[in-house]
Amino acid sequence: MEWLILISLAATLGLLYGYFSQDRRTLKAGQSAPDFTLPDQHGGMRSLNDFRGKWLTLYFYPKDDTPGCTKQACSFRDELQEITDLGAAVIGISADNTGSHADFAGKYRLKFPLLADTAAEVAARYHSLIRFGPVKFARRNTFLIDPEGKIARIYLSVSPARNSSDVIADLKQLQTAKKSVATMHAPIES
Prior knowledge:
Layout: H1 2-20, E1 37-39, E2 45-47, E3 55-60, H2 67-78, H3 80-85, E4 88-94, H4 98-108, E5 114-116, H5 121-125, E6 129-132, E7 135-138, E8 142-145, E9 151-155, H6 163-184
Parallel strand pairs: 3-4, 4-5
Antiparallel strand pairs: 1-2, 3-8, 6-7, 8-9
């Protein structure tokens, strides 16, 4: 019986070590967003360059069809029209494969791309990777990327229920600020 307790304790300590020893660095607002090219749930390839000239909401999530990830995806689904009306696109990325993404998107009528980062290389470039030995998950982080490909906002360890609303509020604020700066630098007509 004691050996079961010791094995359980060792496993728990190993998981805690794996979590707390993760790379805690993050990207910074104003930096160029790391490039990516990954397959979506339909097998098409998507890259960061495909979204040049428009705002992009790039959200990482741990696993298809789990409670928090479903809540987050459905929130983006429900607010997708408002996001697109603001000139932005939405992409979800996890380490799940394209088949899992296709099932998840179909089940919840998700109309935005879910990219399969099965090697977790893109999650690692965005400092959004959790590793437990050979098991890899994306950390629930979101990046708002501006039309020039620069990171405008970073949301770490987001609330699945509020993530899309936070993105919408920031898109409105950032776009208003850009318009104000453009107006200030516009030539004065006489």
